[in-house]
Amino acid sequence: MPALQINGKTLNLDVTDDMPLLWALRDVAGLTGTKFGCGVSLCGACTVHVDGQAVRSCVTPVGSLAGKQIVTIEAIGDDPVGARVQEAWRKIDVVQCGYCQSGQVMAATALLRAKPAPTDAEIDAGMSGNICRCGTYGRIRAAIKIAATTK
Ligand code: FES
Ligand code: FES
Q: Whole-model pTM above 0.85?
């Protein structure tokens, strides 16, 4: 497997090309902030960024990622939009159990990069694939609005 670019570092991981990125991140690279939820692209808990786009790492084989920039929750605070999202999350205490939240933050950051001032409908559409069993959807939407208006 060629080297992977993860959070600005070049990592040579001992993994096969068909290993899902989620496994490589958590079990090999030790980056456990990205969570396993469903494993079949249905919940969004495993969301990371690949070249700035929100991607489900549970169904993304590492062999498809040569030369691409992967960013996980551990480094999203280094991104100006990601930092604003995290600040807004803290400001209104979005998190309940927390399990889905790294995926929520990654999805929200990708949404705000694409749509800096999203409408409610755009927030709902952009976040609809990220499931929260604690039902924090109202606070997620409010935090995205705070992040959108914070400079
Ligand atoms: S664990 Fe990847 S979408 Fe649920
Ligand atoms: S905060 Fe518990 S699943 Fe979302």
A: yes
